[in-house]
TrEMBL record:
SUPFAM superfamilies: Folate-binding domain. It comes from Gorilla gorilla gorilla (Western lowland gorilla). Residues 276-352 form the CAF17 C-terminal domain. Pfam families: Beta-barrel_CAF17_C. Keywords: Heme biosynthesis, Mitochondrion, Transit peptide. GO terms for biological process: heme biosynthetic process; iron-sulfur cluster assembly. InterPro entries: CAF17_C (IPR057460), TrmE/GcvT-like (IPR027266), YgfZ/GCV_T_CS (IPR017703), YgfZ/GcvT (IPR045179). This is Iron-sulfur cluster assembly factor IBA57, mitochondrial. It is found in: Mitochondrion.
Amino acid sequence: MATAALLRGATPGRGGPAWRWRLRAAPRCRLAHSSCSPGGDPTAGAAWACFRLDGRTLLRVRGPDAAPFLLGLLTNELPLPSPAAAGAPPAARAGYAHFLNVQGRTLYDVILYGLQEHSEVSGFLLECDSSVQGALQKHLALYRIRRKVTVEPHPELRVWAVLPSSPEACGAASLQERAGAAAILIRDPRTARMGWRLLTQDEGPALVPGGRLGDLWDYHQHRYLQGVPEGVRDLPPGVALPLESNLAFMNGVSFTKGCYIGQELTARTHHMGVIRKRLFPVRFLDPLPTSGITPGATVLTASGQTVGKFRAGQGNVGLALLWSEKIKGPLHIRASEGAQVALAASVPDWWPMVSK
């Protein structure tokens, strides 16, 4: 039976989004239209929580060769902007992908936003971990060679995540995708559980109907509960393997596109059909030691058998790279202070039913 089928429902309190955001008031909204509060002030009730992601930043890649240049480096197809109808703003497109090294291990995770520079040339914004913006820029420069491509930071826009403040607050279709010079609002391409992405020069809550400023702690708690890795803490450069990091589940890899750096191992693993380890969301069941849990700490079964390693987390939730067939029983970590901390792994209910 599929591992996912065996494990769903095994851990109380998991699966659905972690609602109950801590919210603050925001001005009236301008960017999108909402059906959540018909005929009333959209700020009367918080329909959406907006989280400013200072740990994420943008690089702009543009030029006549931008598309073929990126295709040779990324695991996925490019989100090419759709032609807009006469008089309408250009349609927004976004995609998720990883840059790999030649051994097929993840270097950088990015969300790509397709831009229509003019009638025939497309440009792209690459959202990445702000701590590796310079390293990613150097990585792109290494492979640019003679291509007509410009790579530069794009500090004009800030990155926001937008999540519904409760399951009943608003349907996913209540926001309208938009792409413009001052703001881009688009669904998160990884999974519907991660809501929307907003790139703007302004304060995010001011642009979203019923928007309130959310606490960043809540965003990361929600992300870990959904099993979504983001940035170099969750995906250490040169260490993480893309398929073990659930790249295929998050719409981040194409197995039919042309060649790219690191493709060989990824394609071979996919066609073998066996992925024995994955990043799973975990929840700690015991109080944590004052020093926390060290990244890379070994996860053990009750009998002391190694199941995998803790990757990263926040508070009592996080991610761990675990053997899929060994996560059903009691698990624990021996913390640095000698304490034994129990934890439980879960399978997000948005994952497909698989037997890998």
